[in-house]
Amino acid sequence: LSSAKSSYQDTLFSETLSRKTRLNSNYVFENFVNGPSNQFALAACKNVVENPGETYNPLFIYGSTGLGKTHLLHAVGNFIFKNNPRLTIAYISSERFMNELIYCLRHNKISAFRKKYRGCDIFLMDDIQFISGNKAATQEEFFHTFNALLEGQNQIILTCDRYPKEVNGLEERLKSRFGWGLTVAIEPPELETRVAIARKKASLANVELADDVSFFIAILSSNFLCRLTTSRFKRQNLISSSRAAASTPCLSLRSNLTGRIILCCRCPSVDHTTLSSPKTMPWLLIFDSTVFR
Questions:
Q1: Low-confidence ranges of the chain (pLDDT < 50)
Q2: How far apart are CA 229 and CA 188, in angstroms?
Q3: Residues 108 and 119: beta-carbon distance below 8 Å
Q4: What Cα–Cα distance (Å) separates residue 286 from each residue in 217, 240, 248, 293?
Q5: How confident is the model over 202-240, as pLDDT tens digits?
């Protein structure tokens, strides 16, 4: 039990900061679908990676859940990781920042905590709104971390689910500092962008979407679209099925009397007349339309 506890603590906080901390390599600029709803945020991020710490510092990106804020945050980190080997990158959620701070306060490691985050070249924090409320110690530490990074001309990028002035329980001095650089919004995508996102995610999963399927997925809801990951396309063995491996699968729409919508994978190498139910068709994806109302 003691060994397991020690292992957990080591995972929670490491005094050293690797150059690519917790970045998702799948989130890159090339995979981000550009549209009117997010073009300004994308342009700002691309500008920042060309001159870290010199323009738009801090960069504050806000918008509802599932609109691509985290994708852009990782894309910035991945671009800098690839093109600026000398720079150290810290990607962290506000919740983890708070948990690491609590751990370091309890174990007398606050100096290591400050050295780790105040000395990085690129500081990327997701969901800054979660340090609001009755978290005075976390806000105090973040305030000084923020100041130290700016004084060192180190790049700061923050994401939030709302405009900084609208975050209740956040100290006014933090709200003021968040506005020192550039504040940019990501709006909910229009239909055309949602269609493009659906097709992009399908393409990354090596799945061909019929036009009606693309539009069906796009009109369900933006919340569903943000959850439509590559793994979701593969969840029913869509790609790995040995019977479908001989060619590129193509999804098309089917429906039945129960009101369910079926995305059916058509594969030229398969005799579909022998496949009569979802149990015998491992590449079927079935969505109940009531889930998305």
A1: 1-10, 230-232, 234-249, 253-262, 264-293
A2: 18
A3: no
A4: 12, 18, 19, 16
A5: 788 777 777 777 777 777 655 555 555 544 454 443 333
